[in-house]
Amino acid sequence: MAMMEEVVIVGGGIAGLATAVALKRVGIKSLVLERWHELRAAGAALSLFPNAWRALDVLGVSHKLTSIYAKAKVDGDGGPIPLHRKALLEALADELPANSIRFSSKINKIETITHEGCSIAVVHMEDGSVIKAKVLIGCDGVHSMVARWLGLAAPVHSGRSTVRGVAEFPQGHGLRKEIQQFVGGKRRAGYVPMTDKDIYWFFTCPTPPQGLDHLARNSEAIQRELIENYAKDLPELYLEIVKSADLSTLTWDPLVYRQPWNVAFGSLSKQNITVAGDAMHPMTPDLGHGGCTALEDAVVLGRHIGTSFIQNGGLVPSEMPRVLANYVAERRWRAVWLITGAYFSGWVQQGDSSWVVKFVRDAIFYRFLFRKLANIVHYDCGKLPTVKT
Q: Which residues form the FAD-binding domain (predicted)?
């Protein structure tokens, strides 16, 4: 017998856990299926801008993080707060009831059936079990199985790759909490202290002609390649930070994104199934908004499903196609703008030195578009509906 769940969320990353918390806040129980055996912490760290903190306020978890992490200093308002990715995941997971997250849960197939005139999602697990859901939400990342089921085109390679890591200084690093960046020669590197002892750093460059397979996830080889070749002429302080990296946090990954027209005109929901986070809108990290946008998605999705739930006194399957379509309508064009803005930002900052790139960068990007892009940090995703007790 297949188990019937109200909401099944595929993926226990930022989008998946935040969506589960949002649904809990409006009285809806969900089941999170995570393929790994524990909370995923890939990426080591991220920076959250004011729009993300508004979402975390709504979810009721921001206070757990602001007591530990301080705001980084940048020009003007809207500066980010860098933090460990695992700390964010744990803060979200701690809000969920026991057994809300099912680890080591790998999916083989997704399909739908019709029951009493309504669509029900059916998830076939690798262990042979079957789970039915009134709503299925794909938060399963860049290579989302749910996105493929919806018919969304696969993400494409941007031509660039990035190294990320966290450096540890047990005795303290003594640096101010300021973002430092180095741009030039088609490279972009930088670092920002998260705490008095930990520093998040990154390095972005064109993907090597031979690809990245030769590094085979070998952290020591990645660190050595960066220090001896790709970043050897960068300031000594930056190299010292790379040398102090916790090797378990080190990754070198290609940067991919979903082409914006696929998000603009693609099927982001179908029947009672939709996507959120990177499963909907994978983007390059040049605006630092992948995680921020996932938190926005969670609140908006929780608001739409929660409003229907409260008005109808329960989750009504026949209502879900309309509810999810409204969620998509609210998120689609912001996602398109962010994907486009992130790609364009990376292109002008790491492009070649041709007169075309210089003209676009100086006459168009910094003069007109940069200010509009800067406004994305002030976006308000709204509130969740109030549950009557």
A: 6-67, 89-307
State the DSSP string of 48-71. E-HHHHHHHHHHT-HHHHHTT-PP
| Pair 220, 265: CB distance under 8 Å | no
What are the DSSP calls for 160-176, one per residue? EEEEEEEEE-TT-----
Element (H, E) at 309: helix 290-312
Please answer whether residues 310 and 364 qualify as being in contact, where contact means their C-beta atoms are separated by less than 8 angstroms: no
How far lies 40's CA from each of 17, 36, 93, 349, in Å?
11, 7, 11, 30
Q: List the pLDDT tens digit at each of the 389 positions of the chain.
A: 678 899 999 999 999 999 999 999 999 999 999 999 988 766 688 999 999 999 999 999 999 998 888 766 554 455 789 999 999 999 999 999 999 999 999 999 999 999 888 999 999 999 999 999 999 999 999 999 999 999 999 999 999 999 999 999 999 999 988 889 988 878 899 999 999 999 999 999 998 877 777 776 788 999 999 999 999 999 999 999 999 999 988 888 899 999 999 999 999 999 999 999 999 999 999 888 999 999 999 999 999 999 999 999 999 999 999 999 999 999 999 999 999 989 888 877 665 566 566 666 665 666 656 666 678 899 999 999 988 76
Whether pTM > 0.70 for this model: the answer is yes
Structure tokens of 354? 């041709």
Tokens 């005109």 belong to 265
Tokens of 163: 């190294």
In whole angstroms, give the CA distance from residue 213 to residue 28: 43
Helix segments in 313-385, DSSP class H: 320-350, 355-359, 370-374
Torsion of CA 54, 55, 58, 61, to 10 degrees: -100
Residue with tokens 């070198």: 252
Contact assessment for residue 84 and residue 75, using Cβ atoms and an 8 Å cutoff: no
Beta bridge pairs of residue 162: 204, 253
